[in-house]
Amino acid sequence: MAVAEINEQGGIKALDGAQLVLVPADAGDSVQKATSAAQRVLNRGKITAAQGAWLSSFTLGATEVSERLGIPWLTLSWSDKITERGFKYVFQSSSVSSQLAEQGIAQAVALGSEAGKTIKRVALVGDNTAAIVSYFKALRERILPKFNLEIVLDEVFTPPLPDATAVVQKLRTARPDLMINGATSHTDVITLLQKMREFQVKVPMIGLGTQFTTQEFRDGVGTELVEGLMATVASHALKGQGQLSERFKARTGEPWMVQDSVSGYAEMWIIKAAIEQAGSADPGKVRDAIAALDLKEGPAAAALMPGYIRFNEQGRRVDAVPVIVQWQGGAPYTVYPTEGAVKQAIWPQ
User: Fold this and answer.
1) Helix 186-198 / helix 165-174 crossing angle, nearest 10 deg
2) How many other C-beta atoms can be found within 10 angstroms of the C-beta atom of residue 331?
3) Where are the alpha helices (DSSP H) in the chain?
4) What is the number of alpha carbons within 13 Å of residue 199 lying toward its C-beta?
5) Most CB atoms closer than 10 Å: which of 42, 132, 167, 337?
6) What's the family (predicted)?
7) How many other CB atoms are there within 10 angstroms of residue 177's CB atom?
8) How far, in whole angstroms, is CA 165 from its chain's centroid?
9) Is 181 in a helix, a strand, or coil?
10) How is 154-172 classified by DSSP, letter by letter?
11) Is 257 exposed, middle or buried (0-12, 13-18, 19+ CB in 10 A)?
């Protein structure tokens, strides 16, 4: 959608209206396939910049290729490792896992306090993919102790999760005030929540990632079960983005914009701004332009909180802020931070 809008609005003005051409590649279902896909598409020539992949493990592999070829790569993937390798050509548009962990806990504690609920006991349940490993490590070692929160369950599994019975039994025994759900696979999330429903385990929960905010997730779990469930995501449709959301729904047929669509939309406009600033489609010059960007207005800045786009020397977006999304009435809405909230949060019972 972003590419179409950019081209409809005159393309790259600094290059006499040159049109952006999107060259998609399927990352597949493994790190090896994602890396191979990056090699195929980036070696075809005339690639100015790239974006993807969703899963951090895939992005770690794919960006080895883009770095070697000197092609700038934007990603919404969370893992700290992505920008800890000293690479020059990779940029993260979202907070990294360790930052997201602290920001997400602070937001959850604030929401609980506003609802008159004190959070003291926390359960960690998630898989061992790269982003969740980084996220949970930061929680265990630094963030939960900082907030004086006790870990009453720490359960990590290797996906796929064939049966969630043992996990849910432990969860029922632990009786946490808050569960942090770090299952990244759509099917694992559904398996876990369906088993919680079977055992009648009701725990206030914050999921990690956009897989908790999709129509497929709601339909797989059931509208009644997802009601009130919250998720920490890098981005989601914000207050004041009604027109953008309507354009998205009309163009795609999807019922709402989730993290992948919001961040992907913003990243294409970031690439467009960098090409304009560089006055060139040369990947090296575009990379330097991305590193020097300071966007305070326009589609990219408006799509991502806190409303401006800058990157530090590591390639991480400065002051990137996640949002908390909550299911209300069968749809996911941004509920925190307040300045971007579409609806008021309701603490789940």
Assistant:
1) 60
2) 17
3) 2-8, 31-42, 56-69, 97-114, 130-138, 144-146, 165-174, 186-198, 215-221, 223-226, 242-252, 259-278, 283-292, 299-303
4) 18
5) 132
6) Belongs to the leucine-binding protein family.
7) 17
8) 28
9) strand
10) EEEEPSS-S--HHHHHHHH
11) buried
What angle do the packed helices 259-278 and 283-292 form, to 10 degrees? 110
Q: In what order do the strands lie in the sheet with 73-75?
A: 50-51, 73-75, 90-92
- What interhelical angle do 130-138 and 56-69 show, nearest 10? 110
Buried b (16+ CB within 10 A) or exposed e, 40-58: ebbeeeebbbbbbbbbbbb
pLDDT in tens, the chain (349 residues): 999 999 999 999 999 999 999 999 999 999 999 999 999 999 988 999 999 988 899 999 999 999 999 999 999 999 999 999 999 999 999 999 888 889 989 999 998 898 899 999 999 999 998 888 988 999 999 999 999 999 999 999 999 999 999 999 999 999 999 999 999 888 899 899 999 989 999 999 999 889 899 999 899 888 988 999 999 999 999 999 999 999 999 999 999 999 999 999 999 999 999 999 999 999 999 999 999 999 999 999 999 999 999 999 999 999 999 999 999 999 999 999 999 999 999 987 6
Q: What is the DSSP string of 66-129?
A: HHHHT--EEE----GGGGSS--SSEEESS--HHHHHHHHHHHHHHHHHHTT----EEEEEEE-S
Pairing type for strands 323-328 and 230-233 reads antiparallel
pTM for the full predicted model: 0.89
Residue 303 per-residue DSSP state: H
Residues present in the chain in total: 349
Residue pointed to by tokens 């990056």: 38
Query: How crowded is the C-beta side of 87, counted as CA atoms within 13 Å?
Result: 29
What does 268-282 look like in DSSP terms, one character per residue?
HHHHHHHHHHHTS--
Domains annotated for the chain, with CATH where assigned, are 2-92+243-250+258-303 (3.40.50.2300), 97-234+323-340 (3.40.50.2300)
Residue 64 — left, alpha, or beta (φ > 0 → left; ψ -120 to 50 → alpha)? alpha
